[in-house]
Amino acid sequence: MGISLPVDNYQKMSVKIITAAKQLPKYSRETTDIIPMLEGWLDGQDERFIKKVKKIFEGAAVDKRYSIMDPEEVFTASSFEEKNDIYTREVIILGEQVLKKALEKANWNPETLDYIITVSCTGIMIPSLDAYLINKMKLRQDIVRLPVTEMGCAAGISGIIYAKNFLKANPGKRAAVIAVESPTATFQLDDFSMPNIVSAAIFGDGASCCLLSSYEDDYGPEILDEEMYHFYEAEHMMGFKLTNSGLQMVLDIEVPDTIASHFGDIIHPFLKKNDLEIKDVDYMIFHPGGKKIITTVEALFSGLGKNIDDTKEVLRKYGNMSSATVLYVLEQIMDRKPKAGEKGLMLSFGPGFSAQRVLLQW
Description:
This protein has 12 helices and 13 strands. It is globular and about 65 Å long. The chain is of the alpha/beta class. It has 2 domains: 11-213, Thiolase/Chalcone synthase (Peroxisomal Thiolase, Chain A, domain 1, 3-Layer(aba) Sandwich); 222-361, Thiolase/Chalcone synthase (Peroxisomal Thiolase, Chain A, domain 1, 3-Layer(aba) Sandwich).
């Protein structure tokens, strides 16, 4: 006769986020340094158009961004293969750096990891990043792998959701979610469309890692609940189109308004099923999608008595690093050591079109 875990114990068992860490690439530029470079890129374009592009960069609310390649290299003609080779080389370096940093922060040995989730949508590599990390860091040979490649900006929270469900089903286990993104590797030199220009103005490169546990003795905010929300008939709103020159940004101007129109349905029922209201949430851990999305969401949250100052700060300092960015916001809040009982709501949007939510309690 087999032995099974009592239902009561299973229900009580909690999954916690132990730590979050970030890693920035070696190159960086202030936005004020990038604007003069636009002259060369936009050479031959209409003068009014050039002024408009500069204004977009100046008004993007991003003071600085980091990159896996020198900005001069970004504005140099290169093939998809050449840029993807740089992406592959650099994400392996960043992935190892950020995982080591998170493990040191948590005082964990690499071999204690049971589950590794790697997240990226800005390049193509098979085998995926997790395979390289297993070899470089001598992770266990029986570690469970999950690469998440096609969920865009939402995937940092998606990775947490997948890790939480694995750990909930497996008490006494540990997981790492590693997000490494290089939107600059997707920049299209010959594309003067608004989606390419806007994405160049708001995006930067970066890596982040969070560690999760279902060990009783590991300490960190507990994941109370998680949920995805899928918008019908909205696949066209956000994503990449694979072209001969690389991954071409798809970004519909209706994204902020679409988020606004669904905002109540995304927030309130999710909290209500946990017997909470928005007033009970202390920290809004919102993905820094870009100035327009932030302005829209900030107005909605401020109407509910909440702010997204941490989100704005991360956008200003680093830009939108796709899936990795929300974990920068999480780290900023976790490093402030919230009080026991305080709650946080993680929220991000991505291709599909979808919203991902995680409810935390310290």
